[in-house]
């Protein structure tokens, strides 16, 4: 293992190189300020900077250090998580700045995942917009609102690639694709950190969870991650690097092990790769008590040993574990940890505080006037509505029962998610106020006005076996011109510690759907969920399906905008929807295997298939419909044969062949036909969002550089091959036209 890891280091070093940044005047000023401050610090005060504790305000896990005010006043808590509110944060900051010996201001970190007070769609939904500018803008607004309430550090972006929808935290990420995940990771860092960290409306980002937290065995949260170094480097690590290359100021370690080594004690991950190969110059924070959890992993004999492992691995800051607070001093005295190590971490943390402008003005993020004017503004709410609609995906619309016919007289809204304010925010929306959410029923009633009667019956609960509400629901359906059936999960069925072994509609919702659809009334299902669900029966029977995800504060208005046709849906899924949980993990960029099925005979014996389920997903990566239709011309290439110095220029004409304007997300995939190792059947390498008026045609052009086709070879060199390639351009990962080219 050691030999291959050394190979990896050699190769990764070749690729990424260690770019030492030239020192600027500002750097020199910062360094001399920090040198002077550190010269005064006692070892206790240094260790205090490595300590991150919860205050009594808002807690996301067990509380280990309860005497937070005393620790702050003694300079033994340099950072606080989960505290917000300008006045409250100011009260804590004053304890550090005015009562501790060296007056060092504190970082105030919080999970601002998809909005702060104005809640935007969950991140998996946002990714389905494929709108990098909108994603960046949503985090810009989130940073503006969070900093108005004292927060200067956010535990975002979460960039964990995930191919297993049983894992509840898929809701926080961008889905299964590494290339798209890298683009989104960088956009989020730009949104949070803006142009200058010292501005009072920018926050320091913290890219998480480093690393490969999204690949737990069996989709069970916190479970073991074990994969080849090639998979780790090719599929799971790039989005973290993209966030770091975009300037992310901090990194959070993941709870999981990778091939036997927990991330919080993984020297290769945190020092050799992150700092020495990737050139990361910020600080690393553990996840919540993840240093203490090294005992549970069975790699630390006691909590002091856990502290030794983490400190020597490259982990600067202990989130609520109290391990560094209790043991770091003794570890230094005994020589098990060098004081130079502590000094390096203290410097990295003080640099973050300096860059945030906290030494100039420790209260710059505690301005209650901003809190009163910069939070949930009309512009933020309007953007939340627009973005939620952009993130929703039309999965089916047979017979064009959507958009709703303006002449209808009665709509029956039915289902447990039809009028649920609490669920619309989705997970990780702690500062969001669910009472300000717009439900589907409210959104539809607001649109319908007094022209259309809108009834509501719940029919059943989200979970449970009671069907006594079915009759009333069926009666309501029969009386209506159309049924809007609101089904899905509760918000707390995704997010942390929320894995599911089955990913179908919970409870008796499928039975309710059968009862309603059996009435013969046209039925459009609206799904509210935080993960891909296995809903083949809904796909078969419902007239239309709108994937609304958890759309945040403005969910109901956004869904109504689509249902009534004021918005033409354009979202496309970024995580495969399986037919059955038995297919998981199922993802589009899979390998061909030595016995691939033939589409003409998918059940052929002795091929890689199932006896009881097709190989194909219910909905493939990149899939989503519109109220209009689009056609694609053949793929054109500017050459047939290229040299390594050429850009491959591929193009297609996309025509809006329907009867209303619409936006299409045109996707480009490439297959390396013969590799040094097996290669995916296709990989996303480009996309373009194209607005087309009805009847309009546009030419979409993609430029691919051979370096975009690089991969890790058997010797772990990261480079591209000469040889034959196939380029696909189409509306999703399973449809489209192709052309072949060769790099000579
Ligand atoms: C949680 C999560 C992490 C979050 C942290 C602080 O356990 O794993 O994503 O940022 O603790 O709330």
Give the helix/strand layout:
Elements: H1 2-16, H2 25-40, H3 43-49, E1 51-54, H4 68-73, E2 79-81, H5 86-99, E3 107-110, H6 123-127, H7 132-147, E4 153-154, H8 178-193, E5 206-210, H9 229-236, H10 238-245, E6 250-253, E7 257-258, E8 261-262, H11 267-277, E9 283-285, H12 294-297, H13 303-313, E10 318-319, H14 323-333, H15 339-355, H16 368-373, H17 378-391, E11 393-397, E12 410-414, H18 421-424, H19 440-448, E13 453-457, H20 470-479, E14 482-488, H21 509-517, E15 523-528, H22 536-541, E16 544-547, H23 555-563, E17 630-632, E18 636-637, E19 641-642, E20 648-656, E21 662-672, E22 683-692, E23 697-704, E24 711-712, E25 718-719, E26 723-732, E27 735-743
The protein binds alpha-D-glucopyranose (GLC).
The site of alpha-D-glucopyranose has 9 residues, from loops.
């Amino acid at each position: 293992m050691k030999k291959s890891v050394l190979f990896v280091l050699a190769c990764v070093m070749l690729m990424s190189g260690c770019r030492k940044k030239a020192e600027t005047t500002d750097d020199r000023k910062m360094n001399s300020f920090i040198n002077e401050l550190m010269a005064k610090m006692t070892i206790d005060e240094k260790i205090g900077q490595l300590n991150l504790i919860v205050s009594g305000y808002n807690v996301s896990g067990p509380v280990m250090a309860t005497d937070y005010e005393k620790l702050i006043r003694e300079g033994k808590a340099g950072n606080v998580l989960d505290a917000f509110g300008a006045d409250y944060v100011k009260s804590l900051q004053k304890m550090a700045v005015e009562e501790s010996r060296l007056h060092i201001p504190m970082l105030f970190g919080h999970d601002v995942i998809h909005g702060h007070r104005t809640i935007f769609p969950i991140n998996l939904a946002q990714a389905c917009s494929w709108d990098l500018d909108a994603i960046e803008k949503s985090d810009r607004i989130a940073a503006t609102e969070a900093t108005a309430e004292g927060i200067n550090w956010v535990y975002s972006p979460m960039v964990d690639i995930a191919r297993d929808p049983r894992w509840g935290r898929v809701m926080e990420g961008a889905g299964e694709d590494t290339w798209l995940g890298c683009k989104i990771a960088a956009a989020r860092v730009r949104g949070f950190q803006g142009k200058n960290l010292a501005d009072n409306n920018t926050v320091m980002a913290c890219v998480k969870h480093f690393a490969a937290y999204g690949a737990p065995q069996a989709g069970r949260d916190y479970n073991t991650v074990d994969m080849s170094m090639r998979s780790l480097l090719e599929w799971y690590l790039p989005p973290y690097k993209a966030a770091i290359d975009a300037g992310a100021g901090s990194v959070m370690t993941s709870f999981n092990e990778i091939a036997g080594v927990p991330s919080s004690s993984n020297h290769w991950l945190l020092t050799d790769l992150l700092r020495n190969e990737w050139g990361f110059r910020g600080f690393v924070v553990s996840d919540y008590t993840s240093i203490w959890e090294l005992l549970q992993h069975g790699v630390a004999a006691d909590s002091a040993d856990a502290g030794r492992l983490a400190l020597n691995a490259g982990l600067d800051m202990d989130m609520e574990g109290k391990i560094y607070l209790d043991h770091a001093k003794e570890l230094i005295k005994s020589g098990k940890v060098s004081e130079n190590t502590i000094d390096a971490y203290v410097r990295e943390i003080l640099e973050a505080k300096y860059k945030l402008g906290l030494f100039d003005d420790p209260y710059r993020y505690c301005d209650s006037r901003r809190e009163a004017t910069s939070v949930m503004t009309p512009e933020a709410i309007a953007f939340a509505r627009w973005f939620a609609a952009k993130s929703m995906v039309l999965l089916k619309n047979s017979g064009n029962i959507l958009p709703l016919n303006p002449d209808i007289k009665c709509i029956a809204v039915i289902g447990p998610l039809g009028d649920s304010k609490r669920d619309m925010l989705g997970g990780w929306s702690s500062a969001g106020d669910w009472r300000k959410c717009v439900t589907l029923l409210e959104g539809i009633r607001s649109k319908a006005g007094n022209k259309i009667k809108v009834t509501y019956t719940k029919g059943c609960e989200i979970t449970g076996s009671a069907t006594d509400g079915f009759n009333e629901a069926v009666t309501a359906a029969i009386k209506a011109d159309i049924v809007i059936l609101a089904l899905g999960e509760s918000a707390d069925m995704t997010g942390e510690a929320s894995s599911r072994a089955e990913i179908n509609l919970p409870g008796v919702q499928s039975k309710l759907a059968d009862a309603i659809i059996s009435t013969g009334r046209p039925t459009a299902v609206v799904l509210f969920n935080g993960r891909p669900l296995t809903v083949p029966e809904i796909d078969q029977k419902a007239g239309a399906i709108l994937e609304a995800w958890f759309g945040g504060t403005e969910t109901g208005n956004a869904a109504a905008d689509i249902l009534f046709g004021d918005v033409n849906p354009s979202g496309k899924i970024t995580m495969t929807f399986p037919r059955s949980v038995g297919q998981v993990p199922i993802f589009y960029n899979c390998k061909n295997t030595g016995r691939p099925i033939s589409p003409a005979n998918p059940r052929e014996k002795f091929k890689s298939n199932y006896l009881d389920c097709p190989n194909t997903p219910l909905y493939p990566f990149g899939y989503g419909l519109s109220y209009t239709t689009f056609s694609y011309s053949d793929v054109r290439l500017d050459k047939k044969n290229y040299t390594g110095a050429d850009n491959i220029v591929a193009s297609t004409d996309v025509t809006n062949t329907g009867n209303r304007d619409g936006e299409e997300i045109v996707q480009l995939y490439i297959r390396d036909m013969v590799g040094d190792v097996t290669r995916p059947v296709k990989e996303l390498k480009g996309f373009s969002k194209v607005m087309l008026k009805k009847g309009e045609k546009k030419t979409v052009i993609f430029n691919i550089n051979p370096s975009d086709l690089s991969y890790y070879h058997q010797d772990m060199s990261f480079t591209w091959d000469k040889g034959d390639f196939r380029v696909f351009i189409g509306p999703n990962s399973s449809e489209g036209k192709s052309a072949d080219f060769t790099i000579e």
